[in-house]
Amino acid sequence: MLLKETQDQLLPTLKTYFGYDSFRAQQQQIVESVLLKKDNLVIMPTGGGKSICFQLPALLFEGLTLVISPLIALMKDQVDGLKANGIEADFFNSSQDSIEQEAIFEQIIQQKLKLLYVAPESLSLLQNILTEEHLSCVAIDEAHCISSWGHDFRPSYQQLGFLKQTLPNTPIIALTATADKATRADILEQLNIPKATQFIASFDRKNIELEVRPANDRMAQIIKFIRKQPNESGIIYCLSRKGTEQTAAKLKQNGINAAAYHAGLNFDERSKVQENFIYDQTKVVCATIAFGMGIDKSNVRWVIHYNMPKNIEGYYQEIGRCGRDGLKANALLFHSYADVIQLRKFMSGATNEEVQAAKLDRMKQFSEATACRRKILLSYFGELLAENCGNCDVCKNPPQFFNGTIIAQKALSVITRLKEKEAIGTVIDVLRGAHNATVLDKGYDKLKSHGVGSEISWRDWQQYLIQLMNQGYCEIAFHKNNALQLTEFSKKVLFQGEQVNLTKPTEFKEPIAAIKKS
Ligand code: ADP
Ligand code: ZN
């Protein structure tokens, strides 16, 4: 139990230094746990109020709280904010000269400083003060960076395990906005704080309506979507710089007030786009993932993913940038098979390729799911919803299954005839009995199964094949030109009459051009 004396100081300190009248959910418990010198792991969405959890205890502890953060670019702002509130804070990094660094040491030794922000790379320079005499607490921000299971692994975080060994009695508080179950366990293990108390805030953002659509004629869909609420702000995430620019240009051609944002712009250009967005001068920003990290805009009404994100953590973090005011908001994801292939290619050769690929698979499964999307999303973060959410496309429009065994048999037999060498586009062309160059050149028009599926449209075949892949009846060989191949399960359908359940494809007018090319 916390001393009554300390307990009584909590609210007045919150008010005096931060200007808030009350704690938000869980903040008080976390603050108390830190003050009791326990180790803690805090998982709270962006904007949830993690900073108070270590900044307030820092003020009540005798010595210094060290804050480890990877975001050097944001450190100065954070420190300036604290100073403006009358808090003795500073940051320490390699950009400072030895005189400045000496001055910081001096302040620490005289116990004047309450918070010191430091990047993990600079920790070695601080060895002299990494003692229990000087430090009362260590906060590790963006703690998921320590885990190669996480989506933003940083090697410089890996050394942080030494902190607990050097400072066994100093409480550690690790904080992050995104960490699935595996990542959480890894954080505790690597930081040597196996007994840390875990505070996991709910990740459910009920006000955000979730929707996934096939990526047919995305631009037309996006324009229609925006025109339904033309005065609202939104973000469109694209995979590439070029994508952001093309999308913004198309929107402008259609009279929509849009701008592109990506790492290729210079600092001034980027600041300008951000500022215009924050002050509602620009309604729509087409951005790569770099956009939105530090911005605090509560009335972003929607987020569109023009391209598939590479994992669920990233997707969740990005959609979390809309609806912060708690009012109704929309997250629309375009599911494109071509994107999945592209992302998979980016990953090849990465050190943790397997993990990344598995995460991409989960993302794909989420996109193609026929169950409540929020349930899937939350269960990914270890939170189980008892009821379907009622605020996602699947809940609003539950799929109806039908016996699709014949369809499956046709598809799998064509894949067999094509010797498992052709990608999805050609498989569909052969199913539909096309007479295009590829089909004729390779003599596929002579195959017995050429045209067995001509009664089904190109687009519907595409969706059926994805469903078949989801259910494991066929798979893509990424390393063999994305050829569609059979699996163990295929045999059951082809030779043992196993029943396959499919859902009716969603209706769209245009064929999926992007897929045809691949
Ligand atoms: P996080 O680090 O989790 O993204 P922050 O600590 O930056 O979140 O807080 C997000 C916002 O919430 C900030 O604008 C902060 O001022 C505000 N906030 C935090 N705690 C409280 C509180 N107890 N009462 C009111 N506002 C708060
Ligand atoms: Zn739902």
TrEMBL record:
List the protein's name: DNA helicase RecQ
Ordered alphabetically, the record's keywords are: ATP-binding, DNA damage, DNA recombination, DNA repair, DNA-binding, Helicase, Hydrolase, Isomerase, Metal-binding, Nucleotide-binding, Zinc
Q: Which domain of life does the protein's organism represent?
A: Bacteria
Q: Which organism is it from?
A: Lutibacter holmesii
Q: Which residues form the Helicase C-terminal domain?
A: 218-366
Q: Which family does it belong to?
A: Belongs to the helicase family. RecQ subfamily.
Q: Which GO terms describe its molecular function?
A: helicase activity
Question: Can you tell me which residues the record assigns to a coiled coil?
Answer: none
